[in-house]
Amino acid sequence: MSAVHPPPMNEASARQVLLVRSLESADGASPHWNAADADWASRAATEVVGEDASADRFLARRAQLALERLGDRDRQFHKLTGTGRWRSWTGAVLVAAGFALGILMDAAGPTRYVNILAFPLLGLIAWNLLTYALLLTHALAAPFRSAQRRPGVLGRAVARLGGALTESPLADQASAALRFRGEWARASLPLTAWRVARVLHLAAAAFALGAIAALYVRGLVLQFQAGWESTFLSAGQVHQALSLLLGPASALTGIAIPDALQLEGLRLPEHSGASAAPWIHLYAASLVILVVLPRLVLALISSLAARRLENHFPLPVGDAYFQRLQRAFSGQAARLHVVPYSYTLSPQATLLLQDALGRAFGPRAQLSIAPQVGYGGEDALPSSILPDGSPTLVLALFALSATPEDENHGRFAEALAKALPAGTPVAALVDEAAFQSRFGKQPERLDERRRAWSRLLEGRRIDVLFADIEHGGAPSTLAEGLSALLDRHARHGGGQ
């Protein structure tokens, strides 16, 4: 019977992977880590997990081995691993604070007369009902949002208290630390949001319980009278409103809501009111039904969602860095597929692309160039332009000298993306060579044409890279641009 391994890419493993990634991607060489160390970590991880292991297990084990070696070389490096870690005591502190604030709330009002239409607890119930409506609205709108919704002011404050948005980088690891802090905050945003939601729901429930407790404690030593007054409402209308609001509590407690005639006898100032005890019981029960229980259910949902992310952390591993490591582990080569549109790729440009591809994705990377799609051919793309297998990146190739037209260039880019398998990274490369040879001394025209192409392609959610691939531009610059395209695709949710 084979051994059962726990899911390797949990929260702790993801933190380690991103930390090593930040160190290996930081600008400038590190005195504690170099290319030979990176190669050793990859080889050692492959030997430990075996060649048949998943990419997640390989990346997690590689990061663990790298951090063990780094820890031996620099004891202070261990401090960096605590950056952005959630403080588990945050929830207990805020829940206790919520309960204390609830006790301090004057739930009965400033006098010993309880206005059953202006009970402070009524405002608390209304606020929570509004919160539920907003949560439902956000949940229904979530599938239509292109970017993840960031926490509000209160959520960010709780996240900072919990440690998810704090910690200062070490002086000797500033570049890597700053990169890691930003990447971890972005990668852990869904987990942080669920943790913050859990804390806020529990704190809201504790606040309501504190208010109920304070109300009953005051009721033990003080005599409260209940009544109501209104300029516009009749006793019949008040009865209808109270039946709607307090009906569930009345059914639960068995305390009947007075009819219109009885309510007329509680009208102030004509009458002196009656004992507030039944109304206190009804409002307290309503608070439990409408605030405490729903908040506890929402806290449970948030807790389960957070636990799922803690154990199965969705680390986006589709960027150039992770792709390079996974290809080295699996032995597969990166593949760049270029589809020119009304553009003839010269041999010199082909060599420059191949050189940049090797710099970005390794010496074994492969370049394939599809037959040119002529102007106007976007409505019926031939199957011959599609790549074989699953390419690392597909580029629609345009010339900057062409005026960007949505009905032609835009439709071609969109049609190409739709013709590829779902999840295939697609971007656009716009060659500036011909345009620069004519207008190289007019930088304002170059900027204007770039903006026009960017508006056209990014409006169709296609990332764009501008480069001179005809006149021997720096391959390293083009390589960085290709890597950045793959990174942006991974960040936008298509990396996995």
Automatic annotation (TrEMBL):
Pfam families referenced in this protein's UniProt entry, alphabetically: DUF2868 (PF11067)
InterPro entries named in the record: DUF2868
Transmembrane intervals: 86-105, 117-141, 199-221, 282-306
Signal peptide (residue range): none
Alphabetical UniProt keywords: Membrane, Transmembrane, Transmembrane helix
Protein name per the record: DUF2868 domain-containing protein
